[in-house]
Amino acid sequence: MKKRTLPRVIMTVITLFASCLAVAYSVKMQTDPLPVSGVYSDTLYNRLSSVGTSASAVEYDEYEADDTYIGADKKEAEPTSAVAREAPIDGTRNARDYSVVKVFNHRTKSVSDMPLEEYVACVVAAEMPSDSPAEAFRAQAVAVRTLAVKYMGEAKKSEHMGADICTDSGHCQSFVSYDELTKKYGERGKDVFQRVENAVNSTRGLILLYENQPIVAVFHASSGASTASSKEVWGGSLDYLVSVETAELSDDSLRDRVISEVSFTREEFISKFESKGFNDILQYKDSPFHTFISVKELSESGRVASTVIAGRSFSGKELRAILGLRSTDFEIGFEENKITFITRGYGHGVGMSQLGAVAMANKGESFYSILAKYYPGTIIGII
Ligand SMILES: [Zn+2]
Q1: How far apart are CA 236 and CA 242, in angstroms?
Q2: Is the pLDDT reported for residue 248 higher than 60?
Q3: What is the pLDDT of residues 287-342, one digit of tens each?
Q4: Are 210 and 287 in contact (CB under 8 A)?
Q5: What is the pLDDT of residue 265?
Q6: How much distance in Å is there from the Cα of 172 to the middle of ligand 1?
Q7: Residue 148 Cα, ligand 1 centroid: separation in angstroms?
Q8: In the structure, what pLDDT confidence band is assigned to residue 155 with cuts at 50, 70 and 90?
């Protein structure tokens, strides 16, 4: 069974720091003039101005929060491991027009030019739970736009026929067009898209910056107690992709979407490993589970880092892939001929937790508080 032994004091400090930064976030949709408020915003704006980028921290207009909920199912997507593609945008950025993005659509196998904001809406509609409150949609829109702008500055075009970005969630970001969504969900799809467009329009042009560069704004469906750092999951350390506490388990309305349970009989379990060529496990086909399975190590964020199965070491990620688990944050229960995995969260766990964003929005937090929480140390700029 899993034991949680690592203190989360550091994460708490990071979270508090991020919350302070949230106060400093102030953004607005107009670019000229660029009013700022508060010492933090003023400092941030001056930093941005001094390097001559087109991104600026500006004041945020209060708006009417829309708390209407909608209901529609969503395909759970595994966001990209984009951290491996970390590369800065060069000094020509301020001369660049980000209004159009070249998108490679894997379904139609074609490249098309799309207005950036329309592209962002299609990704938010595909990636975010469709019953999300407005502030969570807005946070997701900023994350999606940030990744798109980041990719527009990178030389990945050869990977998608010259396009900046593709519609594969495993490579770039998921995508669903208005027509596809309404064809599938009818009036409900129209309603979802309208809400997404509202969130996109109200955050138009806003992106997340760290050291004046668009960040790797990765996200995932949900985490348990805390998110994971990029270093823990992919090996590359980024200052703003660190483990932070997340709130979805404290929201009773979300709990059932975070906790999941899946069981295997001994035959099912063994055949999954056998199909991967691990035949040593066959010698345990009549043995109780606890004699050949143990969790050896937990990660910094409390996820399963390594296990030993039939004498061989498997990382939590390997086990997750072999068994199709929702995350590496799991506990194991044994019965005579059954093993049960109780998982918390869904996805790699790095960056913004979508259900965590929903939980914060349900508590009345703003999209910039959500972003400051999950991408600590970043600031909001406008392209
Ligand atoms: Zn791609």
Answers
A1: 11
A2: yes
A3: 999 999 999 999 999 999 999 999 999 999 999 999 999 999 999 999 888 999 99
A4: no
A5: 95
A6: 4
A7: 10
A8: low
Residue with tokens 């595994």: 78
Domain definitions of the chain by residue range = 9-255+348-382, 257-344
286-305 residues labelled b (16+ CB within 10 A) or e (exposed):
eeebeebbebeebbbbbbbb
Closest by Cα among 250, 344, 260 to 302 = 344
- Calculate the alpha carbon distances from 64 to 68, 134, 139, 366 in Å: 12, 10, 16, 11
- 165 CA distance to ligand 1 centroid (A)? 5
Distance 26 CA to ligand 1 centre (A): 32
Distance 312 CA to ligand 1 centre (A): 34
Q: How far is the CA of 80 from the centre of ligand 1 (A)?
A: 9
195 neighbors 134 (Cβ within 8 angstroms): yes
Cα–Cα distance, 221 to 326 (Å, whole number): 10
Arithmetic mean of pLDDT over the chain: 79
CA distance 22 to 139: 13
Residue pLDDT, tens place only, 3-60: 444 444 444 444 444 443 433 443 333 232 222 222 223 333 333 333 333 333 332 2
What confidence score (pLDDT) does residue 339 get? 95
Q: What are phi and psi of 172, to 5 degrees?
A: -125, -100
How many percent of the chain have pLDDT more than 90?
62
What is the Å distance from ligand 1's center to 173 Cα?
Answer: 7
Distance of CA 356 to the CA centre of its chain: 10
**Positions of E strands within the chain:** 100-105, 110-115, 165-166, 206-210, 213-214, 219-220, 259-265, 293-298, 304-309, 312-315, 330-335, 338-344, 352-353, 379-382
Contact 15, 373 (CB under 8 A): yes
> Which amino acid is present at 152?
M
From the CA of 168, how far away is ligand 1's center (Å)?
6
Tell me the CA–centroid distance for residue 161 and ligand 1, in Å.
10
- Is 9 exposed, middle or buried, given 0-12, 13-18 or 19+ CB atoms closer than 10 A? exposed
Q: If you measure from the C-alpha of residue 43 to the centroid of ligand 1, how many angstroms do you get, rounded to a whole number?
A: 35
